[in-house]
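Worked example 2:
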Amino acid sequence: IDLLITGYNGDQATQVGKYNRNISGYYLNQSAATNAVPSAPSNLQALASGTDITLSWDAATDDHTPTNSLSYNIYLKNTTLNQWFIYPMSKTTTGYREIPQLGNVYLNKSWTIKGLPNGNYEWSVQAVDANFAGGVFASAQNFTIGTTTDVMNIKNNFEFILSNNALLVRNKTGMSAVAKVYSISGGLLSESVFTSNTTFNLSAGIYIVEINVNGVREIQKVSIN
């Protein structure tokens, strides 16, 4: 079904063909013609400058939409934090679009994202035609913001130990870290800069702990009884 119309046609007492009832109708495209999805973009490049990254690619092609009219849709994921920074609203495995609209970077073939935290990243791009059909994503590419010593999995390098209304945070990285404790409503309660261990004395309740090491962040919820 390509178009479905429903509604009430009103009291057409003075008109020919009066119904005065709810009606519905549909239009079905029975054409044998099909719309192929665009090809995948090629020559993906990532150029880092500090905490900024510029992503670029070569144009895709399509069977009906002119090349200059194709839009592009990128995704960006921090694999160190396992967090999406740009979610594409498409299936990354097939390219199927979850929403009928232009790609998130429009007609551009390069895009700059500023202020990324340190970590390892995965990205790719797909083309979207005038029918809002998404092509397959190009092969995923990777880049790193920060040095390899800056990039780590915080969950594997910090321990959270609860004892006697106190929270002990143990830092196993050997690097300076910042720990912040927030109330469940988001208010900052305490902050500590430490390289080995730090202790927060807390009353019973639920708290949010944020750990930051060279721009890499991890959030942990803790409960003290």
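The CA atoms of residues 48 and 54 lie 6 Å apart. The first strand starts at residue 3 and ends at 8.
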